[in-house]
Amino acid sequence: MTDKINDLLRRVEEFDPRTVAEIEDFRIKVLGKKGELTALMEEFKTVPAEQKRELGQQLNRLKAAATERINALRERLRDAEAENASHIEDMSRPGSAEQLGSRHPISLVRNQIVEVFARLGYTVAEGPEIEDDWHVFSALNFPPEHPARDMQDTFFIEKNPDILLRTHTSSIQVRTMERQKPPIRVICPGRVFRNEAISYRAHCIFHQIEGLYIDEGVSFADLKQSLLYFAKEIFGEQAVIRMRPSYFPFTEPSAEVDVSCNLCGGKGCNVCKGTGWLEIMGCGMVDPNVLKANGIDPDKYSGFAFGMGVERIAMLKYGVRDLRLYFENDVRFLHQFDSAL
Ligand code: DAH
């Protein structure tokens, strides 16, 4: 009889049903009125008294094990069936929405600026972010003691003062002049690096766009008209610009460019600090020393250059007050701009 009990116990343990109905059949076969366990109980009545204690315990264990396994299996299959059923229950239910990404506002504004200049015949030029002293400073007429070369501004690579992260995209001017003879007309977007404390108006990584135009007879009037066109395309038809004398080592004469404040229409507000003007870029006529250093004859050719910060243009265009928002990548901030263009 022990063999029969063990055999049934093994079959109970190995029982592996696919459906709830299968479990019910099994339950009747084992625990039902005419089931195997019931039959064993009957047989138990006939065993000799001295075996009753041992066999009785075995039978009780078998009954408990069978009941427990059947209940557990039934519960598990019911849950699984309920879940399957709910998946196909309502085919018309809306799916869970995928969040679509959007272009970063800095990319959008950069592309827009590049497009404006593409319409004026400029092509895109690029250069490396890790540069050497020649391309970032020396070839651009920076005197050896110029403060921009200082440790405070420039990130140097591995203590070698000749290898550094470019501090401006003007280095691409140099790379372009090395590759190409005039006429040259390039627009150079890129990421730049400066050892600056991060604040609402400064970051150690930001983006610039550089422009360079070199040909015979290029004048300051050409520069001014090109930048006016740019300002109107980016800030609107009503935009006007003004130029203030300035200094850059690589241009002579040099100027700072302001655009009329598009937030107050030039009347004066807290963004333009009451002046009605917003500073947007530096520019000037390429210094003859720069042309010479890059193998271009300054007696034959002249040119202009300009450089602007993409974050700054984007801030002024959209009235964003804190530059750090562009780097925090909060999608609630970033999503606002895709439809704005
Ligand atoms: N490279 C300058 C800067 O990072 C910006 C600039 C000024 C570029 C005048 C130019 C320029 O090409 O002509 O501040």
Record keyword descriptors for this entry.
alpha+beta, BirA Bifunctional Protein, domain 2, three-stranded antiparallel beta sheet, 10 strands, binds 3,4-dihydroxyphenylalanine
The biggest sheet amounts to: 7 strands, mixed
Shape: elongated
**Mean pLDDT rating:** 90
CATH-defined fold name of the largest domain: BirA Bifunctional Protein, domain 2
Q: In whole angstroms, how far apart are the ends?
A: 86 Å
Question: What is the name of the CATH architecture of the largest domain?
Answer: 2-Layer Sandwich
Global Rg: 40 Å
Into which percentage range does the β-strand content fall?
15-25%
How many separate helices? 12
CATH class of the largest domain: Alpha Beta
* Uncertain parts: none
Strand segment tally? 10
Task: Kindly state the percentage of residues in helix.
Answer: 40-55%
CATH superfamily of the largest domain: Bira Bifunctional Protein, Domain 2
Order of strands across the biggest sheet? 1-5-6-10-9-8-7
What's the number of domains? 2
* Ligands: 3,4-dihydroxyphenylalanine
Structure explained in plain terms:
The protein has about 350 residues and is α+β, with helices and mostly antiparallel strands. It has two domains: about 1-85; about 105-340, Bira Bifunctional Protein, Domain 2 (BirA Bifunctional Protein, domain 2). The protein has helices at about 1-15, 20-30, 35-45, 50-90, 105-120, 135, 170-180, 220-235, 290-295, 310-320, 325-330, 330-335, and strands at about 125, 130, 155, 160-165, 185-195, 205-215, 240-250, 250-260, 275-285, 300-310. A seven-stranded mixed sheet has the order 1-5-6-10-9-8-7, with helices on both faces. Strands 2-4-3 form a three-stranded antiparallel sheet. Helix 5 crosses helix 8. It is elongated, with a radius of gyration of 40 Å. About 30% of the residues are buried. 3,4-dihydroxyphenylalanine (DAH) binds near residues 170, 210, 282 and 305.
